[in-house]
Amino acid sequence: MSAEPRINDRIRVPEVRLVGPNGEQVGIVPIAKALEIARESDLDLVEVAPTARPPVARLMDYGKFKYESAMKAREARKNQAHTVIKEIKLRPKIDPHDYETKKGHVVRFLKAGDKVKVTIMFRGREQSRPELGYRLLQRLADDVEELGFVESRPKLDGRNMIMVIGPHKKKAARGQETSGTA
């Protein structure tokens, strides 16, 4: 069954409950009479409630209806907030300068309104010292706490330790200040 409503000659029922172009109830009429009324008023007969008994059909300009519903859907997509998760990978024995570079990337992502997934990769004997990774993640969270908050605490996942930092202000709220943003 298609998502499109049946229109005009595709409606295969003996009678329909007809609704006029302005929303007024015409009543239950045979399908031939409903199609005749639609042709006279230069409109389409559109089945709006096919499961009702008898099915409900409405007189409308179907092309205009499809265009307006497409425009509403497009507008809704435009106003939707897109959540982007950026990822930064670190090692437990990171050089101070490399740490500052990676921290700069995290700051840039948070200022852009994106979430940041920070992953610390452990190799070899580093796996027996997860507290080093935990301390590094805590240090990073403390360094960027004015821009973002820890959304998920550091947790060990196999050879990696993962933490997610979210921005204080969401992308959608950057343009218009809304109350309740944390």
Automatic annotation (TrEMBL):
Gene3D superfamilies in the record: Translation initiation factor 3 (IF-3), C-terminal domain, Translation initiation factor 3 (IF-3), N-terminal domain
Top-level taxonomic group: Bacteria
Name of the protein in its database record: Translation initiation factor IF-3
Protein's GO biological process: ribosome disassembly
Similarity section: Belongs to the IF-3 family.
GO molecular function: ribosome binding; translation initiation factor activity
HAMAP family recorded: IF_3
Cellular component GO terms, alphabetical: cytosol; membrane
UniProt domain Translation initiation factor 3 C-terminal: residue ranges: 84-167
Keyword Hydrolase attributed: no
Subcellular location: Cytoplasm
Keyword DNA damage: no
Function: IF-3 binds to the 30S ribosomal subunit and shifts the equilibrium between 70S ribosomes and their 50S and 30S subunits in favor of the free subunits, thus enhancing the availability of 30S subunits on which protein synthesis initiation begins.
Origin species: Actinomadura spongiicola
Quaternary assembly: Monomer.
Domain Translation initiation factor 3 N-terminal residues, every copy: 7-76
Keywords for the protein's UniProt record, in alphabetical order: Cytoplasm, Initiation factor, Protein biosynthesis
